[in-house]
Amino acid sequence: MAKKAKAKSKKLVIGIDLGGTNVMAALVDTSGKVKSYVHFPTEAQQGPEHVIKNIADNVKALVKKSGLTMKDIWRVGIGSPGPMDSKKGIIIGAVNLPGWKRVTLKADLEKLLGVGVGVDNDANCAAYGEQWAGAAKGASNVVGITLGTGVGGGIIIDGRLVRGANYNAAEIGHTSLNPDGRLCKCGAKGCFEQYASASAIAESAREAIRKGASSMMTELVKGDLSKITSKTVFEAMTQNDKTAIAVWNEFIKYLAAGVGNQINGLNPEVVVIAGGVINAGEKLFTPLREAVRKQTFALTFSAAKIVPAKLGELAGAIGAAGVVINEGEFYNLK
Amino acid sequence: MAKKAKAKSKKLVIGIDLGGTNVMAALVDTSGKVKSYVHFPTEAQQGPEHVIKNIADNVKALVKKSGLTMKDIWRVGIGSPGPMDSKKGIIIGAVNLPGWKRVTLKADLEKLLGVGVGVDNDANCAAYGEQWAGAAKGASNVVGITLGTGVGGGIIIDGRLVRGANYNAAEIGHTSLNPDGRLCKCGAKGCFEQYASASAIAESAREAIRKGASSMMTELVKGDLSKITSKTVFEAMTQNDKTAIAVWNEFIKYLAAGVGNQINGLNPEVVVIAGGVINAGEKLFTPLREAVRKQTFALTFSAAKIVPAKLGELAGAIGAAGVVINEGEFYNLK
Core-most of A100, A142, A289, B276, by most CB within 10 Å? Predict the structure, then answer.
């Protein structure tokens, strides 16, 4: 056992986080430590073939720059937007990657890199990264929630990534917090991300101002309401702007309901919150924990730490490395 | 492998479902087949010691009546209300079992029966029963939802029961469908069971009538609104009573949101719905599936069958047998 672990610890993998705008690729060891990394534009508008070739070229350059050859690389993991068949490594489609229809990402990258590749959902990889090597390190039952334009999710149960029947699990942003609520672009009503994404915070502020609420936010964006972001709301809130405070409290209420549902539903040890909003620090986490406490059972709540993500923009790449290291059999990797 | 499986298939276990009013105990083989069973009053008001002794006596009588001795019994599984420490087999408390405070159910039953005992949550056991030997047989990712006085839940991922950090997972009835919604007795707002339990259906009908809605339900219960049950609503609904139809539709809407959240959250292959309400048949399942479809992703929805439970009042006992057969190592069973 010790011998096997030692052999494994010598190995190096590449973890990749493929986004609509940028790609992050990291050289990671089997303990989750990043040795070096590179990020570069996705150039998504040039289509899948170009994007995949570009990723392979950058990975090879990263490996070379690290004084290695591809023969030193054990496996490659890549987190991608979906939906996908992560077993086969095929991307079925992706809103932010034009032209990606049933793209054989695993097979294509394996051909270009000469190394076994595992493909998984980007939000799953980010959550896995935090569980394996970040804010939830050491915990077996973890829910990761990323607040951005939408709300992404990843679930780890008993130390393993939850993928679901056809690899679409953990769409936490599209769990409903009100079946009579706001219509989501997914077609459902009252989705979590309609109330508690970074975009939703900004949109709620715009709505309040359009309806006549006076707020310093109007001046902060020099009258151009389209420039309001969650950061604008946070700034105004810390300066006691009543409209911003009301928007922030509404955001906390819905976020707490969404987080609480995961806690009562899955009884995790850690819920990791990621995204720029976590820069709000205790102005986010203190009221959030208090609101979650009210929405959950005392015993279940007592088991669940609610913490900010630690790995930042590297979470997805580290997690993609982690899943191919620890769950290689799922991807049929040798 | 085949040899081991054959050895296992010869074994017999006892599965028990401990309820506040009745206890069900079944002699079950390792394929999930019930050989014989007995049910008897819990006599909960007489306290834990009596209840446990009563269970042991009835189990021994069942075994004897089946022409066996306790030496023929491999293991005993018992589903109980909670919260509990299912690893240690200790019931921390149970609303419907007066006097149950940190009751060492596993140790006590092992002493009385001379056989290894595993203790788990009753709703978990019911879901496991359906996954192992009932409506979801053969599926690896299953959510079980029981609509009764409250709403109970059980989750199976990759073939294993999800217990959570301190064994309180799958409180699906206490996931919120509206953070501004009805106050639940658990202290949270908008809990699933406040809208989509059998009790909630009846309460919504009473509320509507009290607010002045005319309905044949008033005559069906001869003016005593306290006698309205979900069955009354169903009966009136099938006779085109407008109030009953409105109540039923509202129930379906919330149930669909709750089921949809499990589907988008966990991407199961099967969601099993249990409880007396499933006697409504396609008047429940057809509109439910249609409403869930609108609340979920097309791919995720396509993977998820939504079906009525098959095992009826035996589900919990069969599931309690199943978990000790298949997950004995969790309970430290030999």
Answer: A142
| Minimum-distance CB partner of B260 among A155, A163, A188 | A188
In this structure, of A260-269, B2-11, B280-289, the range with the lowest mean pLDDT score is: B2-11
All structural domains of chain B: 2-128+316-331 (3.30.420.40), 135-309 (3.30.420.40)
Element (H, E) at B204: helix B198-210
pLDDT tops 80 at residue A5: no
Cβ A102 vs Cβ A119: under 8 Å: no
* Residue B329, C-beta contacts closer than 8 angstroms, at least 6 positions apart: none
Distance from CA of A329 to the nearest CA of B (A): 14
A92 interaction partners in chain B (CB closer than 8 Å): 299
Residues in chain A within 8 Å Cβ distance of B187: 294
Residues of chain A with C-beta less than 8 angstroms from the C-beta of B163: 267
Q: Report the complex ipTM.
A: 0.95
Closest CA–CA distance from residue A291 to any residue of chain B (Å): 10
Chain A interface mutation, best of B162, B176, B253, B263, highest count of A Cβ atoms under 10 Å:
B176
From chain B, the residues in CB contact with A163 under 8 A are 267
Cα separation, A96 vs A44, whole angstroms: 8
Q: Are B72 and B65 in contact (CB under 8 A)?
A: no
What pLDDT score was predicted for residue B8? Answer: 53
Judge: B174–A297 Cβ closer than 8 Å, yes or no: yes
Average predicted confidence (pLDDT) for chain A: 96
Q: Do A169 and B92 touch (CB under 8 A)?
A: no
Residue-wise pLDDT tens digits, A62-81:
999 999 999 999 999 999 99
Probe site for chain B from A267, A270, A305 (most B CB atoms < 10 A): A267
Q: Is the peptide bond before B83 cis (omega within 30 degrees of 0)?
A: yes
Any idea which residue has 């007396």 for tokens? B276
Query: Among the listed ranges A10-14, A217-221, B251-255, B330-334, which one has the minimum average pLDDT value?
Result: A10-14
Is A179 close to B155, i.e. CB distance below 8 A? Answer: no
What is the C-alpha separation between B147 and B111, in angstroms, rounded?
Answer: 35
Q: Rounded CA gap, B331 and B273, in Å? A: 27
Whether the pLDDT of residue B3 is over 50: the answer is no
Burial class (CB in 10 A: 0-12, 13-18, 19+), B26: buried
Q: Are A325 and A113 in contact (CB under 8 A)?
A: no
What are the pLDDT digits (tens) for B55-94? 999 999 999 999 999 999 999 999 999 999 999 999 999 9
- Torsions phi, psi of B93, nearest 5? 180, 165
CB B82 within 8 A of CB B168: yes
- Ramachandran assignment for B19, one of left (phi > 0), alpha (psi -120 to 50 degrees), beta (any other): beta
CA distances in angstroms from A209 to A200, A217, A218, listed in the order given: 14, 9, 8
3-state secondary structure of B49: helix
| Sign of the four-CA dihedral A108, A109, A113, A115 | negative
Nearest-CA distance B265 → chain A (Å): 4
- Classify strands B34-41 and B22-29 as parallel, antiparallel or unpaired: antiparallel
